[in-house]
């Protein structure tokens, strides 16, 4: 089993950081715009939910892409070690 700094954790850490920053941005910016424009709370909740759903989907896609890239990097690294 690898430690939390191992390559299996890289995709989770990248995706988690993205989700945290993007989620805070969605909630904060939507909240500010709703407050500034006087948007009803119901509309703000729907808009924020839509934004957070987008963040969730793109987080999963980002995790998959990073996991695939880390796998390719590890395979290339292993092939280089074998060839030495």
Brief overview:
The protein has helices spanning 10-37, 41-83. With 84 residues, the protein is mainly α.
What do you see in this structure?
The longest helix has 43 residues, at 41-83. The chain has two helices and no strands. Helix 1 packs antiparallel against helix 2 (41-83). The chain is an all-alpha fold. The protein has helices at 10-37, 41-83. 85% of the residues lie in helices and 0% in strands.
Which percent range describes the beta-strand content? under 5%
**What is the element string, with H for helices and E for strands?**
HH
Average pLDDT level: 91
Q: Characterize the largest beta sheet: strand count, sense, and whether it forms a barrel.
A: none
User: Rough shape?
Assistant: rod-shaped
Structural class: mainly alpha
Number of helices: 2
Q: How many strand segments?
A: 0
Low-confidence stretches: none
The value of Rg in angstroms is 19 Å
Q: Separation of termini? A: 26 Å
In quaternary terms, these chains amount to: single chain
- State the helicity in percent bands: over 70%
């Amino acid at each position: 089993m690898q430690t939390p700094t191992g390559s299996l954790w890289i995709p989770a850490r990248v995706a988690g950081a993205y989700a945290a920053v993007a989620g805070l941005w969605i909630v904060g910016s939507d909240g500010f715009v709703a407050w500034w424009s006087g948007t009803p709370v119901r509309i703000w909740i729907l808009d924020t939910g839509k934004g957070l759903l987008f963040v969730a989907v793109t987080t999963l896609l980002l995790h998959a892409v990073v996991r695939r890239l880390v796998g390719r990097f590890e395979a290339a690294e292993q092939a280089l070690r074998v060839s030495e």
